[in-house]
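Let's sit down with a protein and look at its sequence and fold side by side. Once you have written the record down, we can walk along the chain together.
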Amino acid sequence: MQCLQFDFNLVFLDSAAQKVLIVYAHQSPCSFNTGAKDAAVEELKNKGCEVTVSDLYDMKFKASATAEDITGGVKNAGHFRYAQEIKLAWEEGRLSSDITEEQRKVTEADLIIFQFPMYWFSVPAIMKGWIDRVLTPGFAYSQEKRYSQGMFKDKKALLSFTTGSPEAMFSPTGIHGDMNVSLWPLQNGILHYCGFQVLAPQIFWAPSSQTPEARKSMLGDWRTRLDKLMGEEPLSFLPLDDFDEKCLQLKPDVAEKLASKEFGPALGIHLGKRLPPNSQMKAGV
């Protein structure tokens, strides 16, 4: 009986292991982004997580969404519409192998970390291509299953990235504007749209301009956060139930309830009020 009990505990521990996918985009193995990625792999594995890395540049992942993503030909070559054709191909099992492999990783993951240098206030083209080609309609979202009712509502996602400019330049008074505004399309329009519980971003402010000691400290802070990352509270977004089913506008009673608040309920859905501070950068605000 003791031996059987021991085996049962082993199975229980294995089944409880969290699975993490890191989607990584940087050309150089000597970059700070590589250091951040490696720190995540090491710390999460030490926590007992199963970690998989999709190194997009090393994989030579195709960034452009084209008819080549579909095997067996398209239904309407004369008027090719990617979203419609790719959804049908997903339903019929006719997606290219590189897409299906990444979708398998997403399906298995409890947490996805996107590690990248911020390019033009967004992700690098190769990572945007991963988003375009892997998060296909049907697999990642549908008209019925999106936002708080999304396909991936039981999964977590996190943006971890470097900037080329210091934090002050991404402030409400800085020349780049409020980083919260820059993050809304990525975190709400992509991750939350697919249902992910979005964890606060890990932002490494201008590491290339920092001293070696400062860069080491940045990675140390990241390692400290990783130790308790799986238990973090996600960012707050308005639930789909707050919106009318037909026109997808805020329900009148919800809008009325929010009318007396000092700040808008969400950064993009702000009701003409002051933008909620740090709502895309800190949980619980």
Notes: Strands lie at 19-24, 50-55, 111-117, 156-162, 197-198, 202-204. The first strand starts at residue 19 and ends at 24. Residues 1-15 have pLDDT under 50 and may be disordered.
